[in-house]
Amino acid sequence: MGMTIAEKILAAHSGHDSVVPGQLIECATDWVLCHEITTPAALRMLEERGMDRVFNPDQIVAVPDHSVPAMNIKAAKMYQKLKSWVHEKGIKHFFDVGRGGIAHVVLENTGLMKPGQTLVSGDSHTCNAGALGAFATGVGSTDLAGAIYAGKVWFKVPETMLIRVTGQTQPGVTPKDIVLEVIKRIGADGANYMVMEWVGDYIDNLDMEGRFTLTNMAIEAGGKTGIVAVDDTTRAYMSARGVTPGAYTEYQSDADARFKVVVEVDASQVEPTVAYPHIPSNGRVAGSDRIAVSHAYVGSCTNGRITDLRDVARILKGRKVADGVQMIVVPATQAIWKQAAQEGLLEIFVDAGASVSYPSCGACLGMHSGVLGPDDVCISSSNRNFVGRMGDPSAQIYLASPATVAASAVAGFISDPRAYNDTINAAD
């Protein structure tokens, strides 16, 4: 029996010729990604046990992102803890405030994380990096402490779900709509502890930014991680970051690999999709109901990239955000913020009446920069719409693509972005 991509990576990192789903392994970690929220708890565990060391300071990446610049004294102390630890342990891959942004998006753009590698972090959206053909997953602070100390983590080898996406999307339909459609079909636990492997000619023709959106939301279906096989698109992405194919290992799933389940998606039939409160699997076609919104949010590790901002600018250009709607745009990193400024996108956002914030996780997790109040209704390009996720428990959160968020911000109610397809043709 052959192996999947994920199984091959885990076998190579655990000293086995092969592994099978359900097998317990001790897996070496190539990278540990740390931010200021979950890392301090892991460090305290190590300090309390006299285990205050780092397995390899050159294999740790630290990026404060959740609540920076600090919103209060508690947040400032957590940031100070991370920063002092970085300096004490000689961790060179430190992307401080003003030099980084959202950790997952910062890491994917550095060239440090490579195909065939393993990554763990105390953050559930670590699966983002699986788009590079790597095994990347979130862990709790206890396992994070173990990874920092020993460079190893215990895993149960997961099953793999194969998601085959064929055909091409209609204008105005994006990778965010594809992943929301898949989660709607399989349910919020449909990929429980599975690897979600994306294949098909739609994936073959998809750019890296779109692939990151797909793998980022594996956790919203209960998945362990998402993954996309290395191809010419991946190689070109790595080459642009100074990384040649000889610097990494490519893995492909064998023809006789065993998949727990196969999901077939015809991309041409997918419509702009909105996940209604309070679960990402509660998907409906955008504009099915006339739901007024008070907030429109564009950002997060799912959809704060430059292509996302271009989609928003295409719709906002020459238009205004509706009265009564507070729109916030958060570029995912400093580099993306700068590129958006150079392309004139930020000016378009401001002219439309949107607020442009600094790179961070922002209001995505209800900690900072746009927290929702009682009974607010927000349409967001982020990844979760749980009760209280972005602020007050009575607030309603609807998940959608950046294009759908922009269309809704202009209309004042949840709207289908295909109404603006004429601007797609104009842009082309």
TrEMBL record:
[4Fe-4S] cluster binds at C301, C361, C364. It is an enzyme of class 4 (lyase). InterPro entries: Acnase/IPM_dHydase_lsu_aba_1/3, Acoase/IPM_deHydtase_lsu_aba, Aconitase_4Fe-4S_BS, Aconitase_4Fe-4S_dom, HAcnase/IPMdehydase_lsu_prok, Homoacnase/IPMdehydase_lsu, IPM_dehydratase_rel_enz, IPMI_cat. Keywords: 4Fe-4S, Amino-acid biosynthesis, Branched-chain amino acid biosynthesis, Iron, Iron-sulfur, Leucine biosynthesis, Lyase, Metal-binding. Coiled coil: none annotated. Binds 1 [4Fe-4S] cluster per subunit. Pathway: Amino-acid biosynthesis; L-leucine biosynthesis; L-leucine from 3-methyl-2-oxobutanoate: step 2/4. The keyword Transport does not apply. It catalyses: (2R,3S)-3-isopropylmalate = (2S)-2-isopropylmalate. Residues 7-282, 290-412 form the Aconitase/3-isopropylmalate dehydratase large subunit alpha/beta/alpha domain. Gene3D superfamilies: Aconitase, domain 3. Its cofactor is [4Fe-4S] cluster. Heterodimer of LeuC and LeuD. Catalyzes the isomerization between 2-isopropylmalate and 3-isopropylmalate, via the formation of 2-isopropylmaleate. Belongs to the aconitase/IPM isomerase family. LeuC type 2 subfamily. This is 3-isopropylmalate dehydratase large subunit.
